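WARN  no MSA supplied for this record, continuing single-sequence
INFO  ligand: zinc ion
INFO  echoing inputs
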Amino acid sequence: MKKEEFDNLPATEKEHFNYCTKCSLYFDLRDAAQVQKHVHGITSDKISNSVVQISEV
Ligand SMILES: [Zn+2]
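INFO  complex generated
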């Protein structure tokens, strides 16, 4: 989803989303299909790290 849509989500929803720097879009970490689509060759280790970062914001 786009940043404008993401900004309108409640905080409890936002924590389930991660930002894809390649696509400049937010995607739902609970949706395996979206996660796979936005991996772009990044290892699952790096994905876990970004999840930690976004939940600290
Ligand atoms: Zn992407």
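The chain has a mean pLDDT of 84.
INFO  checksum written, moving to next record
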